[in-house]
Amino acid sequence: MTTEVILHYRPYESDSTQLLKIAKKTIQDFPTRPLPRFIPWFPHDGSKCPLKPKRSPPVISEEAAEDVKQYSAIAEHDVKSQSYDCTVDLLEFQPNLRKKHLIQSHTLNEQTNSGNVNKQSEKGRQHRKRSWSVSLPSHNYTENIFPLSKKLQDSLKALNLHSLYRARWTIEHTICNSNQTLEDIWAKLNQIIRHNELPSCNATIQRHLGQIWVFCDIKYCEYVGNLLKGRLALTGKINLFVHKYGVIFSM
Q1: pLDDT score recorded for residue 20
Q2: Residue 195's beta-bridge partner residues?
């Protein structure tokens, strides 16, 4: 029994001894090992299927089946029409191309690609805007934080919410001072958080909504809310939102 081997090689790698070794290795049998006998992990006596689907399989209509057949026939035709030679249109396998020219061309392409990547990364840095800010944990807030107001305590009791539950203050662009934009508010807020003045807070700007969200523990929410209104010079009302409960408090 003879085996036909088609070996593609580059023009400058035409050493016959090396090519012969490569060809011999390609027709060697792959090492195999006997597979262990399958032992099911469930009781199985062979009389009935131990795993039963919860739902019946979907029904394929005749029209859908015809579409699948047509698609399979087209795909099969495309596969048959493709050339077996996988080196078609690859420059490095062209017999009239020298190794030196190939390396020069490859180096030039790499330089061009790296230049494009550097330009794109520079543009990305220019247009990238910070969208999250997180405060560091600290224990220096307790002396400045007063107990929660009775109104908020009543709301927490009615909703059965713990004081360590996370809540969110929402700053709308409509309550910004006329002399400042939402981006100005966001820059000031980053400064406050960077100096670690807001306990347990992290904030994000939702530019597509025209909002800034400030997350904090409920036990600090009134302290955080008052600080936001005072330091950011907010002119309107801010709402305290809790997931699954909606707005539970405003100031």
Answers
A1: 83
A2: none
